[in-house]
Specification:
The chain is about 35% helix and about 20% strand. By secondary structure, the chain is of the alpha+beta class. Bound molecules: adenosine-5'-diphosphate. Adenosine-5'-diphosphate (ADP) binds next to helix 2, helix 3 and helix 4.
Length: about 625
């Protein structure tokens, strides 16, 4: 039969595997066994409803045979099997999940070969140890069986064969030993036994191997010189208890971490692992992970939230979205409950009462865990917040702020006085006696906010300012509206709630100047006021009404003709020399005074990061 070629990108991954210098070649067995287990999951699910199959849970097995003479290792399963299309699509291309992710990751960080150990690299990893791979398989519901064969980069063949039973047999012909590498070790039963314990212990089907053992011959038992004989006995190598079913005290953090990396194709070490077991109205076990790093596809459509849902050890769905709320969509994990009917449909699952109760309990668990981490290990929490803080803020603004109370205490903002991230509770605790509001300032970076003239007065009074540098920050605070009865107030707001110390006399002279500037600028500004905030800057712009400059910029960037415009209030620093000069010019040279007013307004626009209405005029007058 004609040779099929591997798709080009699969070929590159293959090359990588064939020529791998990777020291943990051993993981190939984990990959092959986990595929076998997945295939059995699929058939055991069908067996629940198809009586004709005549199989029960106890019939499913993975069988390993090592043959030193032919130097082959054979892994057999009685799972769902593959037909011709499956063989071409699944073993001929890299479309499948594990391998695909691995390849992407390799392209991003080719130097980091160590990631193989943390990743589901898939079927191809067998080429790290095998020079020739044969897959004999027959799919459930199909009459024909096939043999897929490949010795690597030059492609693969698919032929029809005779095979009576449903399932798959994978025969790995080991590479020849070299001076540096021996592949014989993977044919040693104790080595195989060790690998199964290490990587595949929790696989829920028996992994059976014929173990060669030795015993004293029965007839020489009582003699002085007992004789030994070899015999073979099938032994189940894995304990089969899924990690989430084992008592927490018997599992090391390392085991939990490894399970997380393998099961969820994750590269990071989870920042928290939550193990919970509940008995009562609903009975379930859950193993949840809070990751420490943002998955590369987290903010894309590709990312699927949800937990794996098992019912008494049988996988019901890979991604049960109903089990995690949107604002905790970073949580990964597994729920196993006996309270679900096994052949429940997707639609019914969504409305299942038990599931709803579990989801509510888990949401509380996650929240408590995050709260505890914030209180006891700030460093861990900061790491978590760096990865998923944005998600929590989105959680506050989404659903009309429905979850704001639940999430507000988990938020962090950078503080002007503390020079680090702080919680709202910490801010409020530190508030000064005469301080009415929780102040915040918005800008692209901390440095940009530091340079804002509007924050001068707040700073000079020693008031703490929260920095909003993320585009969702200001919306978050606006959605919250207040925290512990303290309202939020933008530093660019016209009323900062600070008492005015202006005298009557001052007010009169000021009013004349303010009227002059307002008349000169016309409709460009809604109001001109004597500033209570400015200390060293001559002018600043503040926004009046509900729309802030940040909102104006945001809406105009997503929809340029939105016409969204904040009402501009020009604040003048009456003590600044530039303003004083303008004042004296009103008497001596009114045209020059007008130009002064225009230039000061342009300066205020620039500082606020708003476009100049007439740039050439600005350069004209400023020269
Ligand atoms: P992944 O397991 O991450 O999807 P693999 O490269 O390991 O990627 O496997 C590719 C696909 O080949 C699997 O998704 C599965 O559909 C199929 N496959 C592999 N091994 C078996 C098997 N023993 N029985 C049935 N199908 C299998």
């Amino acid at each position: 039969m004609a040779k099929h070629q591997f798709k080009s990108e699969s070929k590159r991954l293959l090359d990588l595997m064939i020529n791998s210098i990777y020291t943990h070649k051993e993981i190939f067995l984990r990959e092959i066994i986990s595929n076998a287990s997945d295939a059995i999951d699929k058939l055991s699910f069908i067996a629940l409803t198809d009586d004709k199959l005549g199989m029960t849970r106890d019939d499913f097995k993975i069988y390993i045979r090592a043959d030193k003479d032919s130097r082959t290792l054979t892994i057999t399963d009685n799972g769902i099997g593959m037909d011709k299309d499956d063989l071409e699509n699944n073993l001929g291309t890299i479309a499948s999940s594990g391998s695909y992710k691995f390849k992407q990751e390799m392209e991003e960080k080719p130097e980091d070969i160590d990631i193989i150990g943390q990743f589901g690299v898939g079927f191809y990893s067998a080429f790290m140890v095998a020079k020739n791979i044969t897959v004999n398989t027959k799919k459930y519901g199909s009459d024909t069986a096939y043999c897929w064969q490949s010795s690597g980069a030059d492609g693969f063949t698919i032929d029809e064969i005779q095979k009576d039973t449903i399932g798959t047999e994978i025969i790995l012909e080991m590479k020849d030993n070299t001076d540096e590498e021996s592949y014989d070790e993977f044919l040693e039963q104790y080595r195989i036994q060790g690998l199964i314990k290490k990587y595949s212990d929790y696989i829920r089907y028996p992994i059976v191997m014929d173990m060669k053992k030795s015993r004293v011959k029965e007839e020489t038992k009582d003699s002085d010189k007992p004789e030994y004989e070899e015999y073979t006995e099938a032994e189940t190598l894995n304990s089969m208890v899924p990690i989430w079913q084992r008592p927490k005290k018997d599992v090391t953090q390392d085991e939990y971490d490894r399970f997380y990396n393998e099961k969820f194709f994750a590269m990071d070490k989870p920042v928290r692992t939550i193990v919970t077991s509940v008995e009562g109205v609903v009975t379930y076990k859950a193993l949840l992970y809070i990751p420490s790093a943002t998955p590369y596809d987290y903010y894309t459509k590709e990312y699927k939230k949800g937990l794996q849902l098992y019912s008494s050890g049988v996988l019901i769905t890979e991604n049960c979205e109903e089990l995690v709320p949107e604002h905790f969509r970073f949580v990964k994990g597994i729920v196993d409950t006996a309270d679900l009917s096994l052949n429940i449909s997707r639609e019914m699952l969504q409305h299942d009462r038990h599931l709803l109760t579990i989801a509510q309990n888990l949401e509380k668990k996650v929240k408590n865990e995050l709260t505890a981490m914030l209180g006891s290990n700030r460093e861990d929490y900061e790491k978590f917040f760096k990865a998923f803080g944005r998600q929590l803020k989105y959680g506050v603004v989404s659903d009309y702020g429905m979850h704001k109370e639940a999430l507000q205490d988990l938020l962090l903002f950078y503080s002007s006085t503390e020079k680090k991230n702080v919680t709202l509770a910490e801010y409020v605790d530190r508030m000064k006696e005469d301080q009415k509001f929780i102040y915040f300032a918005t800008g692209e970076s901390s440095a940009a906010i530091d340079a804002l003239p509007q924050t001068e007065l707040l700073r000079s009074k020693g008031f703490e300012i929260l920095y909003c540098t993320d585009d969702v920050d200001e919306f978050t605070l606006q959605t919250l509206g207040q925290y512990k009865d303290k309202k939020f107030c933008s530093a660019t707001n016209d009323d900062l709630g600070i008492e005015n110390e202006e005298t009557e006399e001052d007010k009169k002279t000021n009013d004349a100047l303010l009227t002059f500037v307002k008349e000169t600028l016309g409709d460009k500004v809604a109001e001109v006021t004597a500033s209570k905030k400015l200390v060293s800057h001559p002018v600043c712009l503040t926004a009046k009404g509900g729309i802030s400059f940040e909102m104006e910029k945001y809406f105009n960037s997503v929809q340029p003709d939105s016409g969204m415009k904040a009402q501009r209030v020009l604040e003048l620093n009456m003590n600044h020399s530039a303003v004083k000069t303008m004042q004296s010019l009103i008497e001596s040279d009114i045209d020059k005074a007008k130009k002064y007013a225009e230039v000061l307004y342009s300066q205020a626009l620039l500082i606020a990061g708003l476009p100049l209405e007439n740039p050439s005029e600005y350069t004209d007058t400023s020269t």
